[in-house]
Amino acid sequence: MTYKTIIEPFKIKSVEPIYMSTEKERISFLKKAHNNPFQLNSEEVIIDLLTDSGTSAMSAHQWSGMMQGDEAYAGSQSWRKMEKAINDLTGLEHVLPTHQGRAAERILYTTLGDKGKVFFSNTHFDTTRANIEFSGAEAIDIPISESKDPQLIHPFKGNIDTTLLEILIKKYGPENVGAVILTVTNNSGGGQPVSMSNAKTVSTICRKNKVLFILDCCRIAENSYFIQHRESGYENTSYRKIAQEMFSLADGAIMSAKKDALVNMGGFLAVKDPSLAEACRSLLIITEGFSTYGGLSGRDMEAIAIGLEEVFDDDYLKYRIRSTEYLGEKLHRMGIPIMLPIGGHAVYVDARTLYPHIPVDEYPGQALVCELYLKGGVRSVEVGSVMFGKYDEQHKLIPAPMDLVRLAIPRRVYTQSHIEYVIEVFEKILRDRDKTIGYKITYEPQYLRHFTAHFEPLKKIKSTIKQ
Ligand code: F0G
Q1: Which residue's alpha carbon is at the smallest distance from atom 4 of ligand 1?
Q2: Ligand 1, atom nearest to 256 Cα
Q3: pLDDT digits (tens, 9 = 90+) for 255-300
């Protein structure tokens, strides 16, 4: 017998109170934060959907594992547990622990990158791109063309364009390619999955050209769920086996353990090639820590080893993907424009379409982020012209291709009634849609402005409302 309610497959042992702010309080909190929810204190937030990174609730098993943490500087038992968990999962022999994903990226891409080098990816995550560009190399995104249409339904919108990949490897010369990076799932492309067949083609192209193939695997378990449910031939393969098969195609992997390893801090780099591992290890020791702890405590390594097992649990993954889908489906049915199909870790709302009367230079995404906070204390993040916008010589905004707002779902943290509440907040958003106004930037730093920029609401609604 099957039930349509998919319950959280866990009970709550330890709770964290939420301060239930009033709308009046939120108006003053947001003002103090210069209308940038990144600047809010966490206790001013009711439901925090800013990120799924480092925000997971750990299991009782993980917490008890932390008590076993071996804090030895060298040769810690906890390190050996973490190393074994990664060896078993990835099949990659050389593992380097790091304090989070971007530390692994810095080490690998500083080693592989240089002026004149080029990297290809379905989409480089922003820290990935930043680390590659910092090395002097170029990072080129080549997702399949279907990924660019937010409404188009495609089972594997996270795929890389393999025809273009072959053309570009030839154009730049295989000797100049630092690596091909598949990000699974594709975070910057809407949390969309990558198919096994796409990964296989990438692997074949890379082997033929003797180019390194790296997996950014921070959401590999979620990606495996989509493969089992959407790709023929994998219906009866376990999520873990699917992940293992994908790892077997790659030469290395980078993981921010803050996602699918279900921990609050941690990461790793794993590679096949011993000489590459050696070069990376030197950088690791200089900047992160000795090779048996990286930037991690023994207890963190225990939690990672356990989390990497737990994340492949059938009931967990079903609940995880279905609960994200549940939010997305309800919003879609209500008439909120979202990116389709719904991804694994987040729902992306198309704010430009939601607010056609707010011009792009008045930041419709920021307007929605502020509305969500004011109306319900829900924190989200703008992924649009605030985050990626640039200026031309006349200081006119060059907008991002889309103005999205990401509602990222922390793992094992919120229950269905929290999600129902978010859905109700969106009903209010829809009701006040035409009255919602845009924002202007009153202060911005030179780099990564979305974290610290100041905004002010524009008083008047511009008369560009489409009928
Ligand atoms: N790669 C991907 C695909 C990511 O999503 C992230 C982080 C990283 C690498 C970097 O890992 O944060 O541990 O240094 N994504 C977070 C997010 C920040 O909110 O999506 P990190």
Answers
A1: 125
A2: 13
A3: 999 999 999 999 999 999 999 999 999 999 999 999 999 999 999 9
CB 255 within 8 A of CB 267: yes
Domains annotated for the chain, with CATH where assigned, are 23-52+313-457 (3.90.1150.10), 60-310 (3.40.640.10)
Task: Tell me the C-alpha distance between 252 and 264, whole Å.
Answer: 23
Pocket test for ligand 1, best of 141, 187, 262 (most atoms within 8 A of CB): 187
Task: Mention every residue, 6+ apart, whose C-beta is less than 8 A from residue 233.
Answer: none
Which protein residues are within 6 Å of ligand 1, measured from CB?
51, 53, 100-102, 125, 127-128, 183, 187, 216, 218, 256, 258, 267
Residue of the CA atom closest to atom 5 of ligand 1: 187
Nearest to 389 by CA among 453, 456, 331: 453
Q: What is the mean pLDDT of residues 145-156?
A: 92
Dihedral sign from CA coordinates of 327, 195, 109, 282: positive
* pTM, 2 dp: 0.95
Q: State the Cα–Cα distance between residues 410 and 310, nearest whole angstrom.
A: 16
- Round the CA-based radius of gyration of the chain to a whole number and report it: 22
User: Distance from first CA to last CA of the chain, Å, rounded?
Assistant: 49
Helix (H), strand (E) at residue 139: strand 138-141
Confidence of residue 1 (pLDDT cuts 50, 70, 90): low
Of 354, 234, 301, 237, the residue nearest 71 (C-alpha): 301
pLDDT of residue 34 exceeding 70? yes
C-alpha to C-alpha distance for 187 and 123, rounded to whole angstroms: 8
The tokens describing 71, both together, are: 């804090």
| Contact assessment for residue 360 and residue 399, using Cβ atoms and an 8 Å cutoff | yes
100: CA distance to ligand 1 center in Å?
Answer: 8
